[in-house]
Amino acid sequence: MNIAIAGAGLAGRVLALNLLQSGEHTITFFEKDSKEGVSAAGFTAAGMLAPYAELETAESVIFELGKRSIELWPALLKEIGLFDGYQQKGTVITAHPQDMGELEHFIGMLQRKVDAAQSIETLDKTQIGALEPDLAMHQKGFFIPEEGVVDAQRFMAFSVNYFDRMEHVTFREYTPVERLEPKKVYTKEGVETFDWVFDTRGLGAKEHFKELRGVRGEVLWVEANDIDISRPTRLMHPRYKLYVVPRGNGCEGIDLEYCADCKLSQTTGYKRYLIGATEIESEDTSPISVRSSMELLSALYTLHPNFGEARVVNSETNCRPAFKDNLPRIENEEGLTRINGLYRHGYLLSPAIVEKALNEGIRRVQ
Ligand SMILES: Cc1cc2nc3c(=O)[nH]c(=O)nc-3n(C[C@H](O)[C@H](O)[C@H](O)COP(=O)(O)OP(=O)(O)OC[C@H]3O[C@@H](n4cnc5c(N)ncnc54)[C@H](O)[C@@H]3O)c2cc1C
User: pLDDT for 256-276, tens place per residue?
Assistant: First the structure.
């Protein structure tokens, strides 16, 4: 089939990787910006695969789809040659003694929502130190063994390299799609016809999904040379929740041409961490505010004082595409499939949502 994908962000890329598996399709991406995807929410994301921790605000369907995505991610990443861009070593969650009641309440709520959350382990100071020696100052915490993380920025970069090598893939950069119909893509150059069209424009699909909204998220990147944390770590706090995601010590494996936009310094010997993320009901994508920076950084400093000497090397802001119920949506008709509303769960959900969308749509008619 001759297939068009409108929007080469996270969902569009995961979709293309799935479609290419059969070796039967040619794919044309229509992307309003560059093919590197630096304006996609998928480029800003932490990439955490946290079906348990997300249960606080999510429905159990997110949990089930998330667990399925965790099964699917390793093969997708292997396909694009990103062998070290996936980790499933679990998540550590801790809190300061005065906030421990809130953390215990949070874990209890997860355990009431799904039986599988009984696998969450309580950690004392010694057990925290055994998992993450640099966090041994914390008296108590919890460990969610099955959670993981995708290196989101390297997924975006490696997938571009992969698509560039595929003779069946064409990238139409800087080509905004104005409107989609079954089998038809409208751009300012006119209308083009395909056997099937996919709409993965995220927030850019408001022309069709009137109730779609953006939820602003801000992240900071820091580099530190005297603290070593190996797993995604969350700090429960009454006013703002923090996560710290280790990102290795540089842009190993990324062609610097693709990395130039992330503005990260190439300092060696430092460990790099992504700190996130705010969640603000706004579609403003202007740079991170002073307030958000102070909240994220003060929480980071209380996670470990050695972060006080870390260097802030980057900040990113983007908007998560969400519907009112914050649940993902698939719309299927013959010749047109739309996937949207991935909200704060794009990495957690996209492999499973894409699998579901293909089974309900194009694969059913083939
Ligand atoms: C700060 C932050 C942290 C996050 N952390 C996580 C996390 O840890 N775990 C997780 O699971 N999720 C996370 N997410 C959520 C995740 O990034 C999103 O759910 C996901 O990126 C949405 O995927 P998408 O493909 O629908 O949209 P996007 O990734 O935004 O891609 C949409 C693409 O469509 C293009 N486009 C838009 N309009 C048009 C048009 N008219 N024509 C052509 N192209 C168009 C855009 O340029 C873009 O490339 C985070 C998001 C943010 C902002």
Answer: 444 444 444 444 557 899 999
Residue 195 structural domain: 2-365
What CATH number is associated with residue 353?
Answer: 3.50.50.60
Q: Which two tokens stand for residue 125?
A: 């100071």
Count the domains in the chain. 1
Write down the pTM of the prediction: 0.94
Ligand 1 centroid, distance to 116 Cα (angstroms): 29
DSSP string, 166-199: -TTEEEETT--EEEEETTEEEETTEEEE-SEEEE
- Ligand 1 pocket by Cβ (under 6 Å): 6-12, 30-33, 37, 39-42, 44-48, 176-177, 200-202, 204, 217, 219, 276-277, 318, 320-321, 340, 342-348
Q: Which two tokens stand for residue 89?
A: 């070593």
Residue 30, strand partner residues: 6, 172
Across 62-71, 143-152, 236-245, 336-345, least confident range? 236-245
